């Protein structure tokens, strides 16, 4: 990033904890540079008890908005004046916009929308089809409900926390009457059987991410089949064990880079009303 911060520079924040691993500042500040927008994107590591002060600080400092991440995506709902329809159904928010005059806050969730945009970009025809999703905590919560919102035919959820899985099922059953939702048992043989008739298999768990590279949601590659599109939302490392298995089985695959950039691009459009230069940002983050 060039040395361009001056007295007129506006602020966009990221509130969460921990944040030292985040690629969001690099992504958004690269976009600001490219489009010559007089803004800076900064991380603010905030504990749960500090959220109230952090939100008030953003207002006082005339911030245009902020991304919200773990552990605040649900607690931030208490500070909103308005919320998008999909975020209300999901029950969590990862992006806020602050009205510069009234200081009213509008909340959005770009996780699910970013995931769907990345599917569409890669021509994954999931609408009306069967999808299997591992993990409905964090981003997986948004993904599951956004899939229903976008018209998935059947959603099979594999989740260790059955109480959480049942909560998501209740939300979808209540809101989207045409979507069939089933919670799978923990058997890998059950998973293999369900994947035979599925279009898309998604890993939304932390298994495989940096620090857990030796972990995988499946123990062997033949759980998969060549007709699947396998999507692992982990982006560091770029190729997890799951994606290696998938490629060996002849599956089409995607890591989490596309989702990460799309969810950032949607937030960027909310704040500025213009498109993020995605090709430039991708190059800066992963090829520069």
Gyration radius (Cα, Å) is 19 Å
What is the CATH architecture annotation of the largest domain? 3-Layer(aba) Sandwich
How much of the polypeptide forms β-strand, as a percent range? Answer: 15-25%
Uncertain residue segments: none
| Shape field | globular
Read across the widest sheet, the strand sequence of neighbours is 2-1-3-5-6-4
What is the C-level CATH assignment of the largest domain?
A: Alpha Beta
Mean pLDDT: 95
Give the total of domains. Answer: 2
Q: Largest sheet at a glance? A: 6 strands, mixed
What is the H level of CATH, i.e. the homologous superfamily of the largest domain?
NAD(P)-binding Rossmann-like Domain
CATH topology of the largest domain: Rossmann fold
Tell how many strands the DSSP assignment holds.
Answer: 12
Could you explain how this protein is built, in words?
The protein has ten helices and twelve strands. By secondary structure, the protein is an alpha/beta fold. The chain folds into two domains: 10-108 and 259-286, Leucine Dehydrogenase, chain A, domain 1 (Rossmann fold), CATH 3.40.50; 112-255, 3-Layer(aba) Sandwich (Rossmann fold). The strands form two sheets. Strands 2-1-3-5-6-4 form a six-stranded mixed β-sheet, with helices on both faces. A six-stranded parallel β-sheet has the order 9-8-7-10-11-12, sandwiched between helices. A hairpin with a 6-residue loop joins strand 5 and strand 6 (105-108). The longest helix is centred in the C-terminal third of the chain and has 16 residues, at 257-272. The chain is globular. The two termini are 12 Å apart.
């Amino acid at each position: 990033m060039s040395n361009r911060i001056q007295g007129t520079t506006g602020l966009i924040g990221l509130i969460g904890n921990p944040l030292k691993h985040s690629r969001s500042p690099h992504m958004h500040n690269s976009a600001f540079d490219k489009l010559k927008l007089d803004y800076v994107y900064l991380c603010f590591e905030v504990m749960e008890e500090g959220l109230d002060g952090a939100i008030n600080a953003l207002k006082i400092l005339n911030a245009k908005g902020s991304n919200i991440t773990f552990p605040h995506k649900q607690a931030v709902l208490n500070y909103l004046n308005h919320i998008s329809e999909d975020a209300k159904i999901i029950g969590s928010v990862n992006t806020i916009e602050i009205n510069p005059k009234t200081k009213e806050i509008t909340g959005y969730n770009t996780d699910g929308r970013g995931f769907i945009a990345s599917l569409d970009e890669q021509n994954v025809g999931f609408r009306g089809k069967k999808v299997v999703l591992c993990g409905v905590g964090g981003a997986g919560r948004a993904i599951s409900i956004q899939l229903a919102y976008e018209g998935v035919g059947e959603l099979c959820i594999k989740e260790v926390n059955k109480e959480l899985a049942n909560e998501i099922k209740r939300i979808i059953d209540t809101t989207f009457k045409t979507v069939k939702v089933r919670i799978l048992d923990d058997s890998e043989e059950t998973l293999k059987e369900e994947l035979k008739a599925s279009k898309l298999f998604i890993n939304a768990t932390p298994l495989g991410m940096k620090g857990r590279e030796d972990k995988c949601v499946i123990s062997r590659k033949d759980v998969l089949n060549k007709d699947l599109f396998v999507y692992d939302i982990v982006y560091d490392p770029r190729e997890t064990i799951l994606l290696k298995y998938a490629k060996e089985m002849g599956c089409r695959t995607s890591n989490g880079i596309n989702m990460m950039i799309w969810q950032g691009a949607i937030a960027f459009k909310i704040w500025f009303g213009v498109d993020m230069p995605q090709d430039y940002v991708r190059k800066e983050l992963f090829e520069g």
